[in-house]
Structures are given as C-alpha cells and as structure tokens.
Design goal:
InterPro entries: DsrE2-like, DsrEFH-like. Helices cover 43% and strands 14% of the residues. With 176 residues, the chain is α/β, with parallel strands linked by helices. The chain starts with a helix and ends with a strand.
Length: 176
C-alpha cells in the first residue's frame, strides 16, 4: 500500500463516527477486592498505553466507587443492604476466604509486604491517567445508593445505553 492510499484510508476511518477507537470499555460487576484490583490494574495499564478507558460500575461493583463510611438506603431494605454492603475500597474483601474480614486484612498485608500498590493508590493512578468512571443509574436505584455517597471523580450516573455506545467504539470490552 502506498502512502497516499494509507492516508486516504486513515482519513475515511477518522471521519466515521462509528469507527473503532483505541479504547477499552469495562463492566465492573464485582465488588470483591481481587476482582476490583484486577479491573484497576487492567484499566491503568491500558491508560498508560495511551488507550481511552471507561469503567462502568454496576451492582456490587458500585462498592469500589463509594466514599468510605457513607451510609446508603432510604427504605428498610436499602438500609439493611447498606449495613451488609459497606462501600469504599478499604471495606471490600476478597472473593474467597474473607472469613469476616480476616482475608481482607491478610490480603492487604501481603500486598504491602510484596511492594504492591494499595487499591486506593491504584484508583488514584487511574484517575490521574484519565480513566472515566461511570456508575450505573439503574443499579443505584435498585440498591438505594445516592450520588452523594459516590467519589467526587465519577461521572453522573448513566444508563446501559451509554455504556453500549462506549463499548461499540472500543477495541476491547471486558466484564469483571
């Protein structure tokens, strides 16, 4: 392919609004420490490699973008759910062998001993690299989570159509 053909094809690709971009879109359904950690590692790695990254947090994944110590729920069921489902990166435990918080403590201690960054540091790195954090509006309504308990650097709650649009433009789409 000669240079003029390559430039012409690049021009057509850039003028197509539905063209796939150098972008990663990810659904974060899990609120488990190990899975949120993996999601943030992938997101920061992709962002560091100059990819545009969008993370869509839904159901239990919303725990990762909640401010610590903030109560949620307006009705009885919502308040009960909030008591059992404390949000914030420091409150989430591993998907296996949590044993009432002992697993979380051990996991964090082992990560620190091995020189692995904390979830909080990883989250801040993702924000610094421009990773877009989108909370799921429907999940927030079902779980009675108010926008006021979400971290300051997340977008306004969005519906699944917004995420589908992001994913349609992406080279890579993941579900964690």
């Amino acid at each position: 392919m000669d240079m003029q053909n390559a430039l012409a094809q690049a021009s057509v690709a850039n003028s197509n609004p539905n063209a796939v971009k150098n972008k990663l879109s990810m659904v974060v359904l899990s609120g488990d420490l190990d899975k949120v950690f993996a999601a943030l590692i992938i997101a920061t790695g992709a962002a560091a490699a100059a990819m545009e990254v969008t993370m869509f947090f839904t159901f239990w994944g919303l725990k990762a973008i909640q401010k610590p110590g903030k109560s949620t729920g307006t009705g009885l069921m919502g308040r009960m759910l909030a008591m059992m489902n404390r949000g914030g990166l420091n409150a989430i435990g591993p998907s296996r062998l949590n044993m009432g918080g002992l697993g979380r403590w051990m996991f964090k201690l082992m990560m620190k001993q091995k020189g692995v960054v904390s979830l909080e540091e990883l989250y801040e790195s993702a924000i610094d690299l421009g990773v877009k954090m989108m909370p799921c509006d429907m999940s927030m309504k079902v779980m009675e989570i108010d926008s006021a308990v979400l971290r300051d650097n997340v977008t306004a709650p969005v519906g699944v159509a917004t995420f589908i649009q992001e994913a349609a433009e992406s080279k890579i789409t993941l579900f964690i």
